[in-house]
Automatic annotation (TrEMBL):
SUPFAM superfamilies: Porins, Starch-binding domain-like
Major localization class: membrane
Keyword Membrane: yes
Gene3D superfamilies, sorted: Carboxypeptidase-like, regulatory domain, TonB-dependent receptor, beta-barrel domain, TonB-dependent receptor, plug domain
Span of domain TonB-dependent receptor plug: 153-226
One Pfam assignment: CarboxypepD_reg
Membrane found in the keyword field: yes
Start and end residues of each Outer membrane protein beta-barrel domain: 383-791
Protein name: TonB-dependent receptor
Record organism: Hymenobacter cavernae
Amino acid sequence: MNSFLTFRRALRCLGFLVALFPLVVQAQNNGTVSGKLLDQSTSQPLPFANVVLLKAQDSSFVAGAQTADNGTFTVEKVASGSYMLRATVVGYQPFKKAITLTAAAPSAQLGILKIAPTAVQLKGVVVQGEKAAVVDNLDKKVINVSKDLNSTGGTAVDVLQNVPSVSVDQSGQVSLRGTPNVTIYVDGKPAPSTFRLDQLPASRIENVEVITNPSARYSAAGSGGVINITLKKQQKDGWNGQAVANVGTQDKYNTSLNVNRKSGKINYFGSYDGSDNRWRGAGNLHQVATVGNSTTRTDQEGNNVSHGTYHGGRIGADYDLTDNQKLTVAADLSRNKSWERENFNTLLTRNSDAPIALRNLGYDQEQQRELDLSGDYRRTWKNQKGRELTANVTYVDVDVDVTVGQKVLDGPAEYPKQERQQKYDVGLSLLMGQVDYVHPLGEKTHLDLGLKTENLYTSGGVDYLLQDADAATFTRQDAFSYDYRYTRNVHAGYATYQTEVGKWSYQGGLRAEYTNLTGNVVPSLGNFNQHFLNLFPSATVARTLPGDQRVQASYSRRLNRPDFMQFLALPIYNDQRNYRIGNPNIRPEYVNAFELGYQVSMGQTSLSTTTFWRQTNQSLQSIREVDTAATRLSGQPDFITRTSYRNFGQTNNYGLELSITQPVAKWWKITANGSIFRNELTSFSGDSRNRSNYTGTARLMNTFNPTKTLDVQLTSNYRGAVITAQGRMASVYSTDVALRQRLFNDKAALTLRVSDIFNTKRQYTELYSEGLTANFRNKRETRVGYLGFTYYFGNSKPSKKIEQGPKSGGGGFGG
C-alpha cells in the first residue's frame, strides 16, 4: 500500500512539474541565429550541445537552443541588438562569438563553427574535460565505459550490470525495467543469436547505448528495447592504441590490445582479446512433486567449478574513396573453450518411505568458433548537408560442440552407476544486408528510408550416449538421438519523417517486417512453418522549454520472436530428472510501449524523469512442470520435470524512472538512478487470474577525485523482487569499489577493483505449478578483486576526471 501511494505521488509530482512551465511567445522578436557545431580535429557533428545568447552589456540570458544530431542549431525570436553567442559541450572548450542583429539584418547565419577539445596547459599540467560516465537522454542512456571503473577486468556483463534500469541474471539474460527479451546490437548491427555477453571484454567496449523506445529505423525484435554496444576503433593519425592486462583473485586473467594506424586515406585497426578464468559456486534445490497418490521430496546441495578460455581477434581498415565516400571492411575471429563440473548430493523422500541418498556428478564441455565478416559503405553530399547513404553486409559463421554428462557416483541399485552423455553439434550461418538513406527536406526536416534482409540457417544433431557395462565405451541410444534444421528469414523496410517547428520536434515512422520460420526434428517431434507480415508504427513528440528543459512523449510497437531452441521440440537434459524442450506451436509476443519524459539541466546538476507503460500480448513464458508420462516410464522412485514455453495472457509493466547527477564538491560527484514499477501478468494456474507486484531498481554511484591523477568510484546496485508466471525471484543487491591511478604523465593507468565487496549477490527463485513446488538458491563467485595495468601509446590517453558538469542531452529520437 505504501509503495502504491509513493508511486501515485511521484506521478502527480511529475505532472505538476511539467505544468509549471507555460509557453512563452514573444511575437515582437523575429530574429534568428543559426549555425552548425563541429569537432575541430575530426569535423564530426557535435549533438546535444548547449547554445545560448547573452546580452553584450550585462551577459544576461536571452535565449538558447540545443544542437541536433547533425550539429545544427537555431535560436529563434531574438530582438535586434548586440549579443555574445556561447556554445558549450562536455569535453570541449567553450566557444564564444560576438553577434549583432539589426532591423535591416535580423538574422545571422554563422555557418560551420569548429570547437576544439579541452586541453589547457597550466604549468606543465594538462587538464582535459571528459564525457560523463552516464549521459542520460530522454530517448536513451549512453554509458561511457572508460569512465566506469567498476567494469575493469570484467566483461560486457559487468558493464550492463552498472547500467541504470538494466539487470543481468546469473544465466546471462538481460532485462530492462523488469522486461526480458532485450535485443543486443554490436556497432549498430543486431548480434547473432550465439552472441554471449560474458565473452566480450569490457576493455574492448567504447560505450553502451540503452534505447528504451526505439524508432522504426531499428529492428522490431526485442520486446524489452535495444542495447547497442559500440566497440573501440581509433581514427587518429599515426600509430595509436592501448594495451591492458588484468589479474583477478582465484585464477582470473585477461588481456587486450587495441591499435590503429592512419596514413593518408587509409586507417588500419586491429585488436586482440584473451582471457583465462576459473569460477566457483554453490547452490541447493528443494522440490516437492505429486504424481497421482505419490509425493516425492527432493533436497539437493552441490558445489561447482568452471573454467573458460577465450581468444578473439579483429582486423579491418577504413578507406576514404573520396572526400564524401568511405568504405570499411572488418573480420572477427574468436574461439572459446569451457568446462564445468558439479558435485551434488541428493536426498529423495517418497511418501513415508525411508529417504534415498544419491551422490551425483554433472559436467559439460563446450567449444565455440566464430567468424564475422562485414563491409560498410558511407556516402555524403557536400552541397546537401544531412543527405547520407549507408550500406552494410555482414556474414557470421558459428560452429559449436557441446557435451553434457551425468553420473551417479553412489546410490541404491535402482539408480545404476552408468554415465549418460548428450553430444550437441551445432552449425549456424547468418547473412544480413541493410541500406539506409537520409534525405533532407529542409534545414530542420528530413526523411529516412531503409531496407534490410536477415537470413539465418542452423542445423545440427544430438546424440544420446549410455555407458556400456565395461565402463570403457558408450553406445548411441537411437530412440533419444535427433537431428534438426531451422531457417529464419526476415525482410524489412521502414520510413521515418522528422521535423522541427519552433520549439517542437516531431518524428513519425512505420516499419514493415515479413518473417518466415521453418524447422523440423528427425525423428519427427514437431515440424513447423510459420510466416507473418507485421506493421510497427512509432512516433515521438518533444518540446523544448525555457531554462534548458525538455519534455518528450513517444510510442512504439515491437515484437519478440522465439529463438530456435524455444521452437524446436528437442529434448535437452540438464540431468537425469530435468529436461527442456521447445514448442513448435508458440507464437511471437507483441508489445505496445509508451513513454513520457522530462529533463532539466541546472548548471552542473541534471534531472531526468520518465514514466513508462509496456503492454505485452501473447506473452511468451517459460514453464516448468512434472512430466507424469516420463515419470511413470522411468520406473524410479522419484519424478521427472519438463521445462517448455507457452503463450498465454497479457502482461503490463508501468512505472516511473528518475535519474539525477549532482556535484557535492569539486572532488565529489553523485549520480543516482532509480525506478519503481508494477508488473502484472496472467498466472500459469490457468484460471485467468492476474499476479502483480511493485518492484524497482536503484543505483548510486559516488565519484571521487582526491588528487588530479586519482579517481575513486563507489557504486551500489539494487533490484527488487520480480514475479514470474510461476513464482518470484528475490531481490538482489551489491556494492563495488574501484580506484584508478594515472601514471607516467598519463601514458599508463593502474586500476584496483573489488566487485560485490560484501558478498551479497545471490539468486533465489521460487516456482510452483500443479503438483510441483520448488525453491532454488544459487551463489556464484561474485566477490572478486582485480588489479589491472593499462599502457597508452600514440595519441591515446586515459580518461581524466570530469572538469565540467555532465551533459544530459535531450535531442534526437534514437534513430
